[in-house]
Amino acid sequence: MSLSPIVTVAEGCIRGTASILEGLEVSRFLGIPYAGSPAGARRFKPPAPAVGWTGVLDGTLPGPAAPQTPEVPAPPGRKPRAWSESDCLNLNVWTPEMGGSGLPVMVWVHGGAYVSGSGSDAMYDGGNLAAATGTVVVTINYRLGALGFLHLAELLGTEYGDSSNVALLDVLEALQWVKRNIAEFGGDPDNVTLFGESAGAAAVGTLLGMPASKGLFRRAIMQSGTAERYRTAEDSSRISREFVALCGLDAAQARDLLTLPVGQLLEAQEKLVQRFGAQTFTVPLPFQPTVGTPLLPVPPLEGVRSGLNSEVDLLIGTNLNEGSFAVEMRPKNPSEPSHAERAAAVLAESGAPGREEEYARALASALGADPSGKQLLEAAISDVVYRQPSNRLLDARQGSAGNNFAYLFAWRSPAMGGKLGACHALDIPFVFRQLASPEAEFLTRGTAPQGLSDMMSTAWSGFARTGQPAAPGLPDWPDYGPERRTMILDEKPRVEGDPRRELREVLGPRVSGLPASRQRV
Questions:
Q1: CA nearest 380: which of 392, 366, 398?
Q2: pLDDT tens column, 298-314
């Protein structure tokens, strides 16, 4: 075993490290630049091609994340992320077969509400997944917050027509790098699966409806994602003016954004996030892609309905209790409405006003008992932000050339006395085979079933390899189809037709045309 493997890509040579994982040798190469610096004259602009180097690049340490404010409170087990505006467009590669060829490639897009996160977080370490499943795993960084999503066309001119989508352009540039170089790591450039969770899955869903993405990935996996997270140019411009004011500038001074210190941008960004947080009971998301722009001419879901990327295979799902963090972790405020009143506000915000009683009856039918106020709010958040958007994307792909598979993750975390249930992000360590990661420990508490992780990681990689998710111990996974067949992922997985149908029937059709101006979620 070579402890310092070296690989040569189009831009130069890279030295990595090797270790034995899951009984196999895995080589890893970290912090590889896939694009030029997005700082200076490139701020708010599409990524420049990667610049080559001489000598051997040190790929033994992760590269910096995109600029972001520290998470408060910091998730248990997570160290503060080092960030850099100039060097954040980097990626990591894990491969089980240096010198091999034709392995399926899985490219991960991290979550974090489009304002935080890194492809180098411990739960995304791709070593175990690569070793156990024979896949090449890639994790990427992309620009976040204002630097990735601030709409400046009206303030700075057409040169910045896609400034609100440069984060998505970063993902496309990373996929171009993969297509150009992944064969050197044993991967098949024509068999790439793009997968992500939360905001990362929303990015994947957006790319499904983006013309420029065509041909860059063969399959897609969306964990707790949506193809509906966007704004109109008008709404994005309004938010940009709000951001400019928080920077201490007026519209005439907007060009100063090009040279302001990053720290000042982050201070304004955090104020905007807090302002949005006070306006919603779900997840504050001030920064989103913009439609009606060169990159996104129409809403992604419309693009999907019209057949864009129809040939791409899709695996999509959510966790049963996606909304529990927003309910249980929200600071207590005696002046806030009751949980039931908050649930009504969430439903109204989503385009289903006056449906709270109908929704409560549907939830009672699904639970087999009348829900508490907390259960009502948690379910409303789960449905509005995650579950029903996933269902609508599947509906939009009915008749697609590619396969469609759905899941519902139902294993309940023991954290906080079981209050979180099958919460948001709990699926990640199961997929990456990182149940013992310090970042996962808060949620898994050492009780997570390894067998479920084995099945999920094998099914995910099987889907990446052939377009069909399958694993020993897992029932045959049928196509979603008109029967809405869905794999329930728990200690004993099973297939159900249209799980929680009652809730879908209340919400699904009524929020499908939700105006982007109302999309605070």
A1: 366
A2: 999 999 999 999 999 99
Cβ within 8 Å of residue 301, ≥6 positions away: 209, 227, 228, 392, 393, 396
pTM of the predicted model over 0.90: yes
Q: Label residue 343 exposed, middle or buried (CB < 10 Å: 0-12, 13-18, 19+).
A: buried
Neighbouring-strand partners of residue 25: 20
- Separation between Cα atoms, residue 27 and residue 208, nearest integer Å: 31
Q: Hey, what amino acid is at 331?
A: P
Tokens (6 digits) for 408: 């519902």
Buried-state track 420-438, b at ≥16 Cβ within 10 A, e below 16: bbbbbbbbbbbbbbbbebe
326: closest CA among 277, 257, 393, 261?
A: 277
Does the N-terminal peptide bond of residue 73 adopt cis geometry, omega within 30 degrees of 0? yes
Q: Which residues contact 129 (CB under 8 A, 6 or more apart)?
A: 94, 106, 135, 137, 431, 432, 433, 457, 461
Which are the contacts of 179, defined by CB distance < 8 A and separation ≥ 6? 189, 192, 216
Amino acid residing at 500: R
CB distance 251 to 224 below 8 Å? no
Phi–psi pair at 172, nearest 5 degrees: -60, -40
Using CA atoms, how far residue 220 sits from 7, 13, 200, in Å, is 27, 30, 11
Q: Beta partners for 92?
A: 139
Q: What is the 3-state secondary structure (H, E, C) of 206-275?
A: HHHCCHHHCCCCCEEEEECCCCCCCECHHHHHHHHHHHHHHCCCCHHHHHHHHCCCHHHHHHHHHHHHHH
Provide the annotated active-site residues.
Answer: 198, 322, 424
- Which of these, 174, 155, 133, lies nearest to 26 by C-alpha position? 133
Kindly list the distances between the CA atom of residue 314 and the CA atoms of 80, 85, 213, 277, in Å, as whole numbers in the listed order. 34, 33, 15, 32
Rounded to whole angstroms, how far apart are CA atoms 233 and 223?
27
Report the DSSP pairing between strands 12-15 and 56-58.
Answer: parallel
Q: Counting beta carbons within 10 angstroms of the beta carbon of residue 40, is it exposed (0 to 12), middle (13 to 18) or buried (19 or more)?
A: exposed
**Quick one: pLDDT at residue 2?**
66
- Mind listing the pLDDT tens digit for each residue in 67-118? 999 876 666 666 789 999 999 999 999 999 888 999 999 999 999 999 999 9
Look at residues 105, 109, 307 and name the one whose alpha carbon lies nearest to residue 211: 307
Q: Which residue has the tokens 């996104």?
A: 296
Specify the DSSP class assigned to residue 413: B
Q: How far apart are alpha carbons 140 and 34 in whole angstroms?
A: 9
| CA 88 – CA 86 distance, rounded (Å) | 6
Query: How far from chain centre, in Å, is Cα 46?
Result: 20
Q: At residue 173, what are phi and psi to the nearest 5 degrees?
A: -65, -40
DSSP 8-state class, residue 415: G
